[in-house]
Amino acid sequence: MRSITFGDYANSYDCVSMERNGGILLLTIHAQGAPEKPCLWSALPHEELSYAFYDIARDRENQCVIITGAGDSFCAEMHPSISGLERFSQGNLTAEMLAKMDQAGNDGRHLLFNHLNIEVPMIAAVNGPAFIHAELAVLCDIVLAADHAEFQDAPHFLSGLVPGDGVHLVWPLLLGPNRGRYFLLTGQKLSAQEALKLGVVNEVLPRAKLMPRAWQVARDICQRPALARRYARVAMTQQLKQAMLEGLGYGIALESLAMFGGVRGREP
After folding, report:
1. Sheet strands (E) in 1-107
2. DSSP-assigned letter for residue 150
């Protein structure tokens, strides 16, 4: 029988660090080659996380997963190499541009599907602002946040892009249809306390207490029977998987199409 072990993938990534203790896997998103620095989002972590989630899902020695960010932010800034909408809006569609779009769409689908395919409970320890792909945190089963954390969807509509690569499904589901659409269309920032009141976050803690609390919750979860843990996650993600199956690819297609409609603010 083919199997994967922690040693097969733990040190395979430039923007993702992993450690495991007692079956609890801690995944930290960080800057390329700098585990102590916050992540600068680009195509690299986008791709790496899609593979990392797959590896974690296939390793049955993982009993619970904690996901957090390095430094004082979960994921708040884009890499300087990301130039925004304009790089796709300067004229004719070229083969190179199409290949990049196809790769980004492929990574985007696998990013969320592989996250949801992890069949053990997941805990997000949101250690600071989560402005980019905050859905990676709020899709977890338990969401803990530092008291200075904030949530926003910064890279999409505020930058002239369709909020289509899963955020169009996640946030209306979590916040309700009207609040979710407002959040995406206005670039609203939710403080940790506001997110707590709205049910997006389960606990808000001082920064120094965040990770100890995440480990405590993970250890408590690991006291339950193995199949109960695994099948609880499977049961609770079924609705999310169905929503992604129906809407993720369509949303990515609309986001891609709109990128060629002209520079920001100009009608196609």
Report:
1. 16-21, 24-29, 40-41, 64-69, 77-78
2. E
- Of 170, 177, 185, 178, residue with least CA distance to 116: 170
| pLDDT value for 1 | 65
CA–CA separation, 207 and 31 (whole Å)? 20
Rounded to 5°, the CA angle 17-35-56 comes to 10
123 - beta bridge partners? 66, 142
Beta bridge partners of 157: none
- Does the annotation count 36 as an active-site position? no
pLDDT in tens, 108-128: 899 999 999 999 999 999 999
Q: Is 65 within 8 Å of 27 (Cβ atoms)? A: yes
Locate 7 and state its tokens.
Answer: 């040693």
Q: Catalytic residue among 47, 48, 119, 135, which?
A: 135
Contact at 8 Å (CB) between 68 and 125?
A: yes
CB 62 within 8 A of CB 23: yes
Kindly list the structural domains of the chain, giving each domain's residue range(s) and its CATH number in brackets, ordered by start.
6-258 (3.90.226.10)
DSSP letter (8 states) at residue 5:
-
Q: Please provide the DSSP assignment of 166-210 as one string.
A: SHHHHHHHHH-HHHHHHHHHHT--EEHHHHHHTTS-SEEE-HHHH
